[in-house]
Amino acid sequence: xxxxxxxxxxxxxxxxxxxxxxxxxxxxxxxxxxxxxxxxxxxxxxxxxxxxxxxxxxxxxxxxxxxxxxxxxxxxxxxxxxxxxxxxxxxxxxxxxxxxxxxxxxxxxxxxxxxxxxxxxxxxxxxxxxxxxxxxxxxxxxxxxxxxxxxxxxxxxxxxxxxxxxxxxxxxxxxxxxxxxxxxxxxxxxxxxxxxxxxxxxxxxxxxxxxxxxxxxxxxxxxxxxxxxxxxxx
Amino acid sequence: xxxxxxxxxxxxxxxxxxxxxxxxxxxxxxxxxxxxxxxxxxxxxxxxxxxxxxxxxxxxxxxxxxxxxxxxxxxxxxxxxxxxxxxxxxxxxxxxxxxxxxxxxxxxxxxxxxxxxxxxxxxxxxxxxxxxxxxxxxxxxxxxxxxxxxxxxxxxxxxxxxxxxxxxxxxxxxxxxxxxxxxxxxxxxxxxxxxxxxxxxxxxxxxxxxxxxxxxxxxxxxxxxxxxxxxxxx
Amino acid sequence: xxxxxxxxxxxxxxxxxxxxxxxxxxxxxxxxxxxxxxxxxxxxxxxxxxxxxxxxxxxxxxxxxxxxxxxxxxxxxxxxxxxxxxxxxxxxxxxxxxxxxxxxxxxxxxxxxxxxxxxxxxxxxxxxxxxxxxxxxxxxxxxxxxxxxxxxxxxxxxxxxxxxxxxxxxxxxxxxxxxxxxxxxxxxxxxxxxxxxxxxxxxxxxx
Amino acid sequence: xxxxxxxxxxxxxxxxxxxxxxxxxxxxxxxxxxxxxxxxxxxxxxxxxxxxxxxxxxxxxxxxxxxxxxxxxxxxxxxxxxxxxxxxxxxxxxxxxxxxxxxxxxxxxxxxxxxxxxxxxxxxxxxxxxxxxxxxxxxxxxxxxxxxxxxxxxxxxxxxxxxxxxxxxxxxxxxxxxxxxxxxxxxxxxxxxxxxxxxxxxxxxxx
Lengths: 234, 234, 207, 207
Prior knowledge:
The complex is a heterotetramer, with two copies of chain A and two copies of chain C. Chain A is α/β, with parallel strands linked by helices. Chain A is 19% helix and 27% strand. Chain A is built from six helices and eleven strands. In chain A, the strands form two sheets. In chain A, strands 1, 2, 3, 4, 8, 9, 10 and 11 form an eight-stranded mixed β-sheet that branches. The longest helix of chain A has 12 residues, at 101-112. In chain A, 58% of the residues are buried. By secondary structure, chain C is of the alpha/beta class. Chain C contains five helices and twelve strands. In chain C, strand 6 (105-107) and strand 7 (112-113) form a beta hairpin. In chain C, helix 3 packs parallel to helix 4. The two termini of chain C are 24 Å apart. At the A-C interface, helix 5 of A face strand 4 and helix 3 of C.
């Protein structure tokens, strides 16, 4: 069975429909599926619900899907880097469901692991807990959060072999594995597709079973906050 | 802070008490914490509840703790390789709480991740579901299983650096990471302690934050079912 | 007449499609691996491995590399290893397309019993309950009757269940039965087995 | 008088003990890293890293290596990377000994508000709710009063909460307060700050 597609548009062929839910990997602009996002912009599909920790920045990453008004709802923990997001949210064009960052990650992982609900202390006593089931364990109160079962996952890895076995690089791993797990179909973009057998089986971060379609491409990998220190005595 | 101890007995010093719950890594005899089990036998601590997928075999692994009658309860998925287990169970000396294998692994992972309860389809409509909370999600019935929060984790890895960052080898990984996560204190034995910086940070299976004490030692690594095929035309 | 173990395994292999990730149980299901032919099938071993290879050659056994039956095995170029929580995450999460398992009893509603005989020694369910609850399709491969000649394809299971309404297809020495709305449907008869013979050996309702 | 940002960070660093895994929030808490001295402290970045190093030298920035504030950083010899679900698993699971965080308001019962001002732009809580719910000890570092001179150490928080009863220690420009049974206990006064001054700037009950 061939998982490799020539480009992002062909890899998404037949998978997109209006009103669908997409789980996206990445944290800020780090490890985001740039190429797949661009192809979704091109496709014109709309009324999307997107589960992603952030929503890109103005004009890059998921921010591009805001510019085109293709997103109707975001499930995120932080959207503070994006003016267009705020404008659409305040004007009522865009809905936001805030999720604490760890709850969002765990909801994705849970969906992928066949767990429809779990209990967490996170958010107890805050607005996040409103309307959610509360339950005590050992004298402490927890709330129930539900697994995310997305129609589609879009993720980015560093390298993958032909069977989809993937490795990530440094903090670009972030939400990519849990996002990949929770979709009915997962499309992955990588910087390099390597031959089967060239990745050590002990060192694969995401087994190919989670990856249905795979593309290789050039990534801009934009840096959001370039911070440096001075060389001493230079 | 020093995590490295000279041997298993010193690494367990002050951590053992009668009636405690211990989570142990390993599957069958593969990846079991041989040295720590031997030291627990030596310690004489008793009335132990042990969460472990299996209970070793007669005279090896956790089976040694059966011979000395130090275990009062096992939380396991399969105990079929052990005659002494059956004898003690049928005579009422030993209690067994059967857990489906995936439920046991997830209960350990949940305990380590601060999740006191989660829902699963596994076991619905079977004896496993009796007395457990049932809940419907999207028209399907699930049961609630609870996280395991053990007093102590004993696990075995292949290599670890001085800070406890650990890597496992092949299928000897198995229950070791989830077991390591769910203990208040985790003691790990490895075949080799390597200097800080010699493991690739991208390729660490279990970050050192989960490992409180660390020992290096010789392992027997007994094979339970030696199965081979013939070389063709040899 | 009827099928032998290898013919049952070969018939089960026909159910597998290119690209599938599959879990094979102990016993006859293990033989299915010999009959997948050119199909691109990846075998999961639920103790933490995708891409399970054959038994090692003598002298090449590795104590760190075993399958869920605790037997020494080998890896392939596609292999990946992971921990038990991840392994059963993919099982419960429906990522494994099919499990081929043995059984003590199957009922016409798809109930499966294959882990325990009360009053006898109890060994435990291992990963069987997770597999039948989570995988895409559960295929049972077993003898149609027990050693006393009694049907193992029943109206209702008498033994403690492994899963309720979980079986999709039953492959026995006498033929192939599909679990449908009101009972079982005959899909195929084994070589030299008549429909009467199959019906006669089956307690469950055949529709 | 009173402490400046660096003195507050230095005071917070005194709370850290050898061997601790610690999460530092954005702002003053980030400065704490400069004052840990010889102590063996491992910093977590909740986007998936333990063992966070300093900012890179110019030209050595790596887009795949950022902290939770999206800033380019570096790794150390002890560093390990992991995914976000694992990262927050260790946070919720109590493996992180302490989090040092900024705050908009803290109440005498340990309630913390640091993520949202209703009617103003809402950016989201990020990982703050998980951190305060999960880590062993929550240390707040902030100015004692806001820019209008009003106390940020209150009887009750007025802003939406990040966590209920989660704060253990408050370090401000005026001193150090511990959250105890019925209110706050003065642990230390900042250089040149009198107890009267601290009490005067504090709305919360000091016991």
